[in-house]
Predict the 3D structure of the following.
Amino acid sequence: MLLDDGWALNRKRTQRLWREEGLRVPQRRRKRQRLGNSMVPADRLRAQAPDHVWALDFQFDQTADGRILKLLHVVDEFTREALTIECHRRIDADKTVATLERLVAERGSAPAFIRSDNGPELTANALRAWCRFACAGRAYIEPGSPWQNPYVESFGSRVRDELLSVELFSCLAEARVLIENWRQDYNQHRPHSALGMMAPARFAAGYREAHRAAARACACAWLTRIPPPAPGALPTRRSHRGHCASAKINDALANRGVLGSLGSSGEFRNPPKALGEGLWLPQEAG
């Protein structure tokens, strides 16, 4: 301003006077980041069963015209399944909640915990309210500590290296199709070293079958303590008696809530119930 008025100024003298008078431009302060409230420390949480811990993370890319693509990854940490990769121009907290609601409807149960960073979409009141009503715990990682959310971070790096860095998407529709095809191939055919070189979908199906067989074996052993029926209650024919006994066991299992029912895609409709140490048994479908 003084130069515009015709004054001749020496830069060093001006700086010296500025310091002597104690004048300085205030430094810009970073806005305080909003942190989520964890119900369990993220670094101590370990997935123990399917749908125990879902990991969430966002990733960005762009189409050929330079417009932004935002991806939402949801990964089951126990089975390593990529439950979904949502692709939109923008994803806010409401759209994140809608995605979780759709996954819960498809799988029949909500996760016990969700693990994520402290992004604004994941610390919003909408997601906190959903967790409260779905009885799902929250596990937020420390700021600047992506290694505390390793499974979804590793998954995101695979998406980046094998898809986003290779394909040039012409539009949003093409991006959604290619991303969904890649996700299906990852779940169905991609072997994973942590799963004994099995694909995530195959490992999850095998776990459900083994879980159901163990539940039936444990339930049958438990039912042997039931008093035998009165004499004459069962027919004397061997084949018919075996058939009636099998039906009786199945009815007893269902009445006691030991055996649940499977959905159309093979998943349990209800969250499991513990019966015995180290064994998860499905509840009866309501």
Notes: The chain has seven helices and seven strands. The beta strands are 53-62, 68-76, 82-88, 113-116, 137-140, 272-274, 280-282.
